[in-house]
Specification:
The protein starts with 13 loop residues before the first helix and ends in a 15-residue tail after the last helix. The protein has 228 residues and is mainly alpha-helical. The protein is built from 7 helices and no strands.
């Protein structure tokens, strides 16, 4: 996604960091919605949105396991133990996501208070597993990439990650990321995406994302905070 071809001393990790903020925002929204929205509002929208979340999270972690971690380990072998631990945490998180998926399905089938409570608790468990993992990546992996990864190699991985997003989820994934990027201070914003994606965002993807999210939003201060 990064298109800055000028020579730089460090790999530009701003898009990677923005992806993490996007996952934080999305997870927090599910936690809030599952706790506070009435079943009549939640039932029609929770399943499709959770399916999207699950798919893009799986893609993100597959990209880390198969591409990013090995590339980083090649230039930073001292991070071997850390990266293996993070890979193991991906498996633990996948189990938590599977449990939450089952709870979402059960709620869709029987949207009563008991099933909503179970779904909320399962999504909270995903958050409580996921966010400490993101904290470690933001504190240790992202700086290591910036300091040690050849910029051209990181740019290649950045673009590869975009190209391999499942086609049916591309517009939604880019819309979600765009929302977060537009909220960042100028110095934290990554370079703009390729022209075709910028055009699609302007024509429809941004509006479609906003319309998709609107039913899930809980209108309370700080409910949709992306977190730190």
């Amino acid at each position: 996604m990064v298109q800055d071809s000028s020579p730089v001393a460090h790999a530009d990790t701003r898009i990677f960091y923005a992806v993490h903020k996007t996952f934080r925002l999305g997870t927090n929204r599910f936690v809030d919605a599952s706790a506070k929205l009435p079943p009549s509002v939640l039932r029609p929208v929770i399943g499709s949105n959770w399916s999207f979340y699950r798919a893009v999270l799986d893609h993100h972690h597959h990209t880390e396991d198969e591409e990013i971690y090995p590339a980083l380990m090649a230039v930073r072998p001292d991070l071997d133990v850390l990266l293996k631990t993070l890979g193991e945490e991906h498996l633990e998180l996948a189990d938590a996501v599977d449990t939450a998926t089952a709870a979402v399905t059960a709620f869709e089938q029987e949207p009563d208070a008991a099933h909503q409570k179970a779904m909320h608790e399962a999504i909270v468990a995903v958050r409580d597993t996921f966010f400490p993992h993101l904290d470690v990546e933001d504190a240790q992996v992202v700086p290591a990439i910036a300091e040690s990864m050849p910029p051209r190699e990181w740019d290649r991985l950045d673009k590869q990650a975009l190209k391999t997003i499942p086609r049916k989820h591309l517009a939604t994934a880019v819309g979600a990321l765009d929302e977060v990027i537009r909220s960042l201070p100028d110095q934290e914003r990554p370079p703009p995406p390729p022209p075709p994606i910028r055009l699609m965002l302007a024509l429809s993807w941004r509006r479609k994302w906003e319309a998709r999210m609107k039913p899930l939003l809980v209108e309370t201060p700080g409910a949709d905070s992306a977190g730190s």
